[in-house]
């Protein structure tokens, strides 16, 4: 170890252990000491020393025992979390017909939330104003001043980069803090991953008015080098002599023309989603056939993606699986058949756990992954110029 | 910044900057100061202070100017690199008919390399012995004692987890250092990514006796949660009424039955690869048709993967594109047509740059990504028990 002072090395190692503990709490909210020890790969003894120092410094607090969530018996473990007052995080989901917002603290506790609806024909300036009005109304109602706002994440519908830029500009001008903008379906993928004990790898597809998706690899959301990862909806599934229906993207036979909610409603010959749900529940042959066709096309797309990505989990969300839940089991069986021959394990195929709040929860999760300053602790990967930001407290 | 001593914070920030500079040099070998500054996001002034300290400490050295590699004019810039004597890295590629090895130092300079062939019918014990004999012979010839061996990476053919475990056990028993084992096609993907100025995102497919591939996302090799990422060869491309040829995986109509070298040779009605190359070069209609069919099937698989992953680059390697180079342009055109409608940018589709040495270069690259101890500097993310390893010098 020529040229390195052992005392400095010890201090550096300890600092780094502290940073890893804080990073785990930043991403996951409340965790017990044994959960932290497993996650960061430290012994219980080393971890106890570190959490003792961090509690003494006020960077983390003991929130409660885990008795309300844990399974099995045994002594209740204390849950540790970042000092809640050290930061606020605002998540916004700007959908086609409504805007949702959630404010959470550094301990991942929800402070307030709200939703407002608007007409799908409204332009961007009116939607932006609706979002700002909602945030103001919720802030007044809950006495929030956003004095320790660490960041805002905004989910927007669709892959349009122009919409993302407009949203970024508007929120950055209105709020003096970092702003992250992403496709709200991709944020939903992140939110689903965060419902797992170990976020790991996940391929998420959402079947609603359109079809979108997202990838989480190594616990991180993947945008792709070109920024458009997750476009499952525009993989073509109708091939050969049949041309397939025209897709809104301009191609023919995309998955979206077969497995979106409107496509299945049309194929089943019913007027709307409620009628489709009733027909599926009653075992109507046309409705069943339309759902099965959608499931088989989706299974082919997901199996091909799983051969390339080898994800541990595949999650199916959106309105179609809520109307026709059997789609999940049929896709799981078909994906399993396609992958069994190649000898790797099989992914767990499941329905989404989160409902319409998935986008706004994903927005908050994206902030927890990116937040530079928490618990009064400097993220050493950021240059010192960011340190002063957000140091005012509520 | 309650509770945090500003002096400690400054020291921590400086330490972290040093670690980022060292990490950049570890992964990329020699870099100029401006290349480092761009890569780690520091100003030239801050960077010069840091490199001055690191040079003074002996952790990094000035290797040479970049006059032999840079384009354009202007003053030559010094290239900085990690102290070469601080570590050795051994890469091994165990193929079906030959084993290759390369030894490199911490500055990414190749110290020695070698290759030995064996019969494809040889079992694992004989292959392992061939690898050890090759390493011993090269070490004697070049006077290497492996006294500062930081790690060994071994590429093995095929997705068989048993083969990977056997290789790991054998090399870990023979050499007292960390061993990494991965599929050699995946390592080839990493090697291709490392030929780029910015490794970024890349989807790699290799068309040879079989078809394999690999993904690099955010500069890192992706194994997938189930560990089998990159199995492009077993995506089914023959569908509908045509059953497709039986694949060695048990399914019918996999890409491998259409676009592997043996499949194209059979479809072209020629006896071997040399005859296929001659027929393709002469414009023989059967050979051209067989190559076009392979290219179209590959394009469909790669376009679907690109819709999901949105990679900046797609790289086509292996023996088939060497025999029939036109395959790359045809795939590029078809992928572009499939992606144009969805409005993201188009990936750069190119032929592989590396030849049969890609696996062993990828193995070395994997070590540079993972190496825990370099330049006499403790990686603070590793517990102190790893510090003593590798401190002996040649």
UniProtKB/TrEMBL annotation, chains A, B:
<feature type="domain" description="HTH cro/C1-type">
    <location>
        <begin position="22"/>
        <end position="50"/>
    </location>
</feature>
<dbReference type="InterPro" id="IPR043129">
    <property type="entry name" value="ATPase_NBD"/>
</dbReference>
<dbReference type="InterPro" id="IPR049874">
    <property type="entry name" value="ROK_cs"/>
</dbReference>
<dbReference type="InterPro" id="IPR036390">
    <property type="entry name" value="WH_DNA-bd_sf"/>
</dbReference>
<dbReference type="Pfam" id="PF13412">
    <property type="entry name" value="HTH_24"/>
</dbReference>
<dbReference type="InterPro" id="IPR001387">
    <property type="entry name" value="Cro/C1-type_HTH"/>
</dbReference>
<dbReference type="Pfam" id="PF00480">
    <property type="entry name" value="ROK"/>
</dbReference>
<dbReference type="InterPro" id="IPR036388">
    <property type="entry name" value="WH-like_DNA-bd_sf"/>
</dbReference>
<comment type="similarity">
    <text>Belongs to the ROK (NagC/XylR) family.</text>
</comment>
<protein>
    <submittedName>
        <fullName>ROK family transcriptional regulator</fullName>
    </submittedName>
</protein>
<dbReference type="InterPro" id="IPR000600">
    <property type="entry name" value="ROK"/>
</dbReference>
């Amino acid at each position: 170890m020529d040229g390195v002072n052992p005392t400095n090395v010890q201090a550096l190692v300890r600092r780094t252990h502290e940073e890893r503990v804080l990073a785990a709490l930043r991403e996951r909210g409340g965790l017990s000491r044994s959960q932290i020890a497993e996650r960061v790969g430290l012994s219980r003894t080393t971890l106890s020393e570190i959490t003792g120092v961090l509690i003494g410094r006020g960077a983390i607090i003991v929130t409660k025992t885990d008795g309300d969530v844990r399974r099995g018996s045994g002594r209740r473990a204390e849950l540790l979390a970042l000092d809640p007052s050290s930061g606020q995080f605002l998540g916004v989901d700007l959908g086609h017909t409504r805007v949702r917002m959630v404010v959470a603290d550094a301990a991942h506790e929800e402070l307030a939330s709200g939703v407002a609806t608007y007409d799908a024909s409204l332009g961007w300036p009116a939607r932006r104003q609706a979002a700002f009005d909602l945030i103001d109304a919720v802030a007044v109602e809950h006495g929030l001043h956003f004095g320790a706002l660490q960041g805002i994440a905004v989910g927007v519908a669709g892959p349009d980069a122009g919409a993302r830029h407009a949203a970024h500009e508007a929120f950055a001008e209105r709020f003096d803090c970092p702003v992250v903008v992403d496709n709200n379906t991709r944020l939903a993928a992140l939110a689903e991953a965060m419902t797992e004990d170990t976020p790991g790898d996940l391929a998420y597809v959402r079947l609603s008015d359109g079809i979108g998706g997202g990838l989480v690899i190594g616990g991180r959301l993947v945008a792709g080098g070109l920024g458009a990862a997750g476009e499952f909806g525009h993989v073509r599934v109708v091939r050969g002599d049949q041309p397939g229906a025209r897709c809104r993207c301009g191609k023919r036979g995309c998955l979206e023309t077969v497995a979106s909610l409107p496509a299945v409603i049309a194929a089943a010959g019913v007027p709307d989603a409620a009628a489709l749900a009733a027909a599926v529940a009653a075992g109507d042959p046309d409705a069943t056939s339309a759902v099965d066709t959608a499931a088989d096309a989706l299974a082919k797309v997901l199996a091909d993606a799983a051969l390339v990505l080898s994800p541990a989990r595949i999650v199916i969300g959106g309105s179609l699986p809520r109307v026709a839940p059997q789609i999940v089991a049929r896709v799981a069986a078909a994906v399993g058949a396609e992958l069994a021959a190649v000898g790797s394990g099989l992914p767990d195929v499941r329905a989404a756990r989160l409902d319409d709040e998935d986008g706004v929860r994903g927005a908050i999760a994206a902030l927890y992954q990116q937040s530079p300053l928490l618990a009064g602790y400097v993220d050493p990967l950021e240059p010192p110029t960011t340190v002063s930001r957000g140091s005012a407290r509520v």
